[in-house]
């Protein structure tokens, strides 16, 4: 479990470093930093201490074919649906929203349990 947690932190830190790289999400630097995956897909028992998760959500338009019809879609980190975040009560989540689209954007948090 500790190895998974350590790797998740490394991925989140790499995601933050990726923001300064003009190549962006999905390009070779993204893959080399291992930020081309969901960061918060970790399930496990609460170990009695709160955890802090860090990530960056890049809002941008990209072409995708979710229903076999290609079109421009507003996405988080070029993912549809956006990355899943699984945390426990008391955990801290730091996710700055970087709007790379020409439109205004806001995050609507769905599925909070």
TrEMBL record:
Residues 59-112 form the Plastocyanin-like domain. Transmembrane segments: none annotated. One of its GO terms (molecular function) is copper ion binding. Pfam families: Cu-oxidase_3. Signal peptide: none annotated. Belongs to the multicopper oxidase family. This is Plastocyanin-like domain-containing protein.
């Amino acid at each position: 479990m500790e190895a998974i947690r350590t790797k998740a932190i490394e991925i989140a830190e790499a995601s933050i470093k990726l923001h300064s790289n003009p190549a962006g999400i999905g390009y070779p630097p993204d893959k080399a930093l291992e930020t081309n995956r969901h960061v918060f897909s970790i399930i496990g028992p609460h170990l009695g201490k709160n955890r802090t998760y860090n990530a960056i959500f890049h809002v941008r338009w990209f072409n995708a074919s979710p229903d076999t019809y290609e079109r421009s879609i507003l996405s988080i980190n070029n993912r549809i649906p956006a990355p899943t975040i699984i945390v426990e009560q008391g955990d801290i989540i730091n996710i700055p929203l970087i709007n790379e689209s020409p439109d205004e954007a806001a995050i609507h948090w769905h599925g909070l349990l």
